[in-house]
Amino acid sequence: MEIAKIAFLETYTLEENAGIMGAILVTDADTKPLEFRVTAPIKPTSFQKTLYGDVLLEHILVELISIPLLNAINEQLDLIIVKDPFFLGTNSKQGVRVVRVYSEDEGKSRASSKSEALAFSLNGSGKTMIETSKKFEAELGSIKEQVNKLAEHRNLLEPFERLKLACEQVHQQKSVE
Prior knowledge:
Layout: E1 5-13, E2 20-28, E3 33-38, H1 46-52, H2 56-72, E4 79-82, E5 98-103, E6 115-117, E7 128-132, H3 140-151, H4 158-176
Parallel strand pairs: 1-4, 4-5
Antiparallel strand pairs: 1-2, 2-3, 5-7, 6-7
């Protein structure tokens, strides 16, 4: 499995309870942007909060953010990298592998039964881990090798910063209009 196109999937929580925006940045293996999409802010009602309870955030991230964004992009992806463990639920809804990158002290998600250490560090200290859902856990070793190869030349967490800044800019533009 050669990774040529990567998607970075992230959320951005707006201030003053204005909702959650989702964004996806598709890049080549050098993390040069190929495509960018963003959702409108999603603001659950108090009734939805009552009905969904503890599963509301996962529902928003999987059903209202990741699936619509993945359906909207034109590029064919090889891998989706996320930081939020709820995004791993996307694995059961489509066929592109979703992996979560996190620092060891954050702990693995409930959706994962297996995680592995990467060769690079998130913050310069401690182990950086990679995990996926049970659906793709058999492929985690080969995915880890490919991610480590990419990380030799590029900071694979830097695109998340770009996503955050892009979401802020999109939100500011919408606020001005």
